[in-house]
Amino acid sequence: MDLTPPERALLDFERSWWLGPAGKTKAQAIRDRLGISPSAYRGRLARLVDSEAALAYDPLLVGRLRRRRLARLRRRFEGEAVRGSRPR
Q: Where are the domains of the chain?
């Protein structure tokens, strides 16, 4: 399955949003360039990162996003394990 033009635009944006005009936040850039809210952007990107078509389109970006997500989940899991145990 190929990516749609909006899906490609989302990945292209994620790859290079920080190259835009200085002083603009990522949230502002998402609204300006993609015309969606930051929360809709995050949800679409999260689903897209799991797609094999996205991996084929931009393997470096998708691999990096998958690793970041895994690290976030690992920190969350390990943090809960540490907080849940009390030394006696």
A: 5-84
3-state secondary structure of 41: helix
Place of tokens 């990107």: 45
Torsion region of 83: left, alpha or beta (phi above 0 gives left; psi -120 to 50 gives alpha): alpha
Spans in the chain with pLDDT lower than 50: 88
First and final C-alpha spacing in the chain: 55
The model's pTM: 0.78
Contact between residue 34 and residue 10 where contact means Cβ atoms under 8 Å apart:
yes
Q: How many C-beta neighbours within 10 Å does residue 10 have?
A: 21
Residue 14: DSSP 8-state:
H
Residue 52, both tokens: 């094999």
Residue 86 DSSP SS3:
coil
